[in-house]
Amino acid sequence: MSYGLLKGKRGIIFGALNEMSIAWKVAEQAVAEGAIITLSNTPMAVRMGEVNALSEKLNAPVIAADATSVADLENVFAKSQELLGGKIDFVLHSIGMSMNVRKKREYDDLDYDMFHKTLDISALSFHKMLQVAKKMDAIAEGGSVIALSYIAAQRVLFGYNDMADAKSLLESITRSFGYIYGRERGIRINTISQSPTMTTAGSGVGVMGNLMDFSERVSPLGNAKADECANYCIVMFSDLTRKVTMQNLFHDGGFSSMAMSESAMTQYLQSFEK
Ligand SMILES: NC(=O)c1ccc[n+]([C@@H]2O[C@H](COP(=O)([O-])OP(=O)(O)OC[C@H]3O[C@@H](n4cnc5c(N)ncnc54)[C@H](O)[C@@H]3O)[C@@H](O)[C@H]2O)c1
User: Fold this and answer.
1) Which of 9, 32, 77, 274 is 20 to 30 A from 159 (CA-CA)?
2) How many domains does the chain have?
3) pLDDT mean over 141-154
């Protein structure tokens, strides 16, 4: 069902790789809610991935960019304003990658070049995006910027590795830049902390299946799905949330407020039975 929440708004969606991607669902819903958008992903993802099919379906131009490159980001904001016909109203940062996770390096045996890359791709890219947009004055007054985070920023979840540090940094950038962009241009910046979700990035975390199963059982509402995350992004892009900024918003079926559930307790006690 469409409510026209983004009617007349212009947006940039970073990170749609395939149909499982959270960004893919956000792009589809943003257009269904009346927005016009551009899509961006790495040159490699654009060549190899399915983003061109999404582009055709949504009539949304693709602008390739490595989100760690300031020049590439400048190009995305310049071209998007040109193609969409004005300043940008909303931006989604849906980007994450850790070579340490991919190569199964443990947290006490990290490769530091890979660690730098994790932080650059998954967190600094958000600062770069915001700094570029602000310098170019590319986001309209009242605009809304969202990045996607995970609860491993606050709590230790075994196996999430250096991505936990990247998410902590991402959330900190959200607060620090949110203050400046809010004060100077009335622009909102928030993170949505999403349940574990089976996507390409998600399945790269070796223990993801176990984390998903655990949080599904512990959360009173169960895990939030990718399309439900997209719903929340749309509300945050809309004019209904004009005074929400610098927040980390949990979208996790209640997981972040739980410690021990009845079923987890039962399971725990059973593990001691002979
Ligand atoms: N899947 C989960 O369980 C989960 C949970 C919470 C938060 N998140 C976050 O959601 C976001 C989206 O991930 P997803 O789960 O949809 O997976 P995904 O693999 O579909 O998306 C990750 C995207 O990052 C892009 N990317 C990687 N390096 C890049 C670079 N240098 N420049 C530009 N783009 C680059 C990839 O091409 C891909 O499109 C990530 O920030 C992820 O950490 C995911």
Assistant:
1) 274
2) 1
3) 98
